[in-house]
Design goal:
Blueprint (H helix, E strand, L loop, with lengths): L1 H15 L21 H4 L17 E11 L10 E16 L2 E12 L4 E13 L5 E8 L19 H6 L10 E10 L2 E8 L15 E3 L4 E3 L7 E2 L9 E10 L2 E11 L5 E3 L4 E3 L2 E13 L2 E12 L14 E13 L2 E12 L2 H8 L8 E13 L4 E10 L4 E10 L5 E12 L14 E9 L1
Parallel strand pairs: 10-14
Antiparallel strand pairs: 1-2, 1-23, 2-3, 3-4, 4-5, 5-6, 6-7, 7-11, 8-9, 11-12, 12-15, 13-14, 15-16, 16-17, 17-18, 18-19, 19-20, 20-21, 21-22, 22-23
């Protein structure tokens, strides 16, 4: 059904709207294919990924990273949660008139005692009319305006990488997808179809301990979270759509998706396994400037298709999610960003009745984030602090990162991840025993 919808929508839009681009050569009121600011908010300040490949020969970098737990825990045998040697090759070139891009990682993982080859990107850009681009293959897709908050961006993420001290670029997981970008004077339309669902990577005990919904306790490598995978091609597929335009100096985006909850927050009491329930979402986002800074906001409705009445305690209720954020330079080379995030559960009374009042969570979840970034020594040294704090659950997560770039070829890293809270089953407090320090060095060629 999603393929049929995709093809019909593409044909209708092409015939009615995208038959030509404006005479002045602009599309969507001067819009580029993506939000102008996405590269800024996609990563923590001071933890920027390497520059785009600028020649047909590609480029290499090699990296060594090590992370060590601050406190030991019987659930994890190893005191280290990060011991990696990583080599990456990146290339973008034209082959037979078709633009291609590739990014491949070879990694030796000392924690899991394994070696692997990860294809981060392997995609082609198909020749199209000037009002359209089409990318097919493995690619990292970035939507939305949040800084480490994702409301309308449901593309794959990797929270384990963030929590153990890998470069923040690895929080974004690739998707095997077809992406169409259509440009016109009426705005731009992006359509992404993934024939197979790719979930978020979250702690399941293999490397980080977590609170088990089955054992009701903190567990680790001896109690890997059982997850029923959704990996059937064309059956477990995902469709996402985004419309973007500009209203004066304000950027507007409308979103829609049909797929699955990205975290395994459904629970099968019979099989004693978690799973990814069906989800359909609708949302919008705005971004503009005010008081010498940049503000942004997003809102989304999450329609939980397998629990429409909200009376199944083992499947998330439908929700309204949103955030508002603001960032600006306080003084030269010192930036501050803050965000307020909230979730509002629908059908709360049905949810509480299903639990008979036992262990029911509040209707609303609230969280604040802040990001402080200071650049020193002609911007070769970057200090950054990113914090999450939830007054609802009274827990927190702090990420500290220091990077030093003595030359274009070398970068040194150090930092820490700290988790805390009063209840061991809340979002961040469950990871208290995973608090760690990390360090690394990277060499570019």
């Amino acid at each position: 059904m999603k393929i049929l919808f995709l093809l019909l929508g593409f044909l209708w839009i092409t015939a009615n709207t995208f038959g030509q681009i404006p005479d002045n050569g602009e599309v969507g009121g001067g819009w580029e294919p993506d939000f102008e600011m996405e590269e800024e908010v996609d990563v923590l300040a001071g933890e920027l990924p390497p520059e785009t490949v600028d020649d047909s020969h590609g480029r290499f970098w090699g990296e060594v990273r090590y992370g060590h737990r601050i406190d030991s825990h019987p659930a994890q045998a190893s005191a280290s949660n990060l011991k990696e040697i990583r080599l990456q090759y990146e290339n973008a070139r034209e082959l037979l008139g078709i633009d291609t891009r590739m990014r491949v990682d070879g990694t030796f993982d000392g924690v899991l005692d394994s070696a692997r080859l990860d294809i981060r990107e392997l995609a082609i850009k198909i020749p199209t009319p000037p009002w359209m681009t089409a990318n097919i293959g493995r690619q990292i897709i970035k939507w939305g305006t949040g800084d480490l908050i994702f409301v309308n961006d449901l593309f794959p993420k990797d929270y384990v990488s963030l929590y153990i001290g890998r470069d923040v670029e690895y929080m974004k997981r690739p998707s095997d997808a077809m992406e169409l970008n259509l440009y016109s004077r009426f705005g731009n339309l992006d359509i992404v179809y993934s024939p197979r669902f790719t979930p978020y990577t979250v702690p399941t005990g293999e490397r980080l301990s977590y609170f088990s919904p089955i054992k009701k306790d903190i567990v680790g490598e001896r109690d890997i979270l059982p997850i029923e995978e959704r990996d059937k091609i064309f059956r477990d597929d995902v469709l996402a759509v985004r419309y973007t335009n500009k209203l004066g100096n304000t950027e507007l985006a409308l979103y829609g998706s049909d797929g699955y909850w990205p975290m395994p927050n459904g629970f099968d009491t019979g099989e004693q396994t978690t799973f990814y329930p069906r989800l359909r979402s609708y949302g919008a986002g705005l971004r503009g400037t005010a008081f010498h800074g940049i503000w942004s906001t997003e809102l989304a409705y999450y329609d939980s298709l397998q629990d429409p009445g909200g009376d199944d305690p083992n499947i998330p209720n439908s929700q309204i999610r949103g955030f508002i954020g603001y960032e600006r330079e306080l003084i030269k080379n010192l930036d501050l960003g803050v965000q307020y995030y909230t979730e509002h559960r629908q059908d709360q009374s049905a949810y509480e009745r299903a639990l008979s009042g036992a262990n029911a969570e509040p209707r609303e979840y609230r969280m604040w984030t802040s990001r402080l970034t200071h650049k020193l020594r002609k911007q070769m040294l970057t200090l950054s602090l990113f914090s999450f704090y939830s007054p609802t659950q009274d827990d927190y997560y702090l990420r500290i990162n220091v990077s030093y770039k003595p030359s274009d070829d070398w970068t040194l890293y150090a930092g820490s991840n700290h988790f805390g809270g009063n209840r061991r089953n809340t979002d961040f407090a469950q990871y208290q025993q995973n608090s760690n320090i990390f360090m690394g060095i990277r060499r570019y060629w």
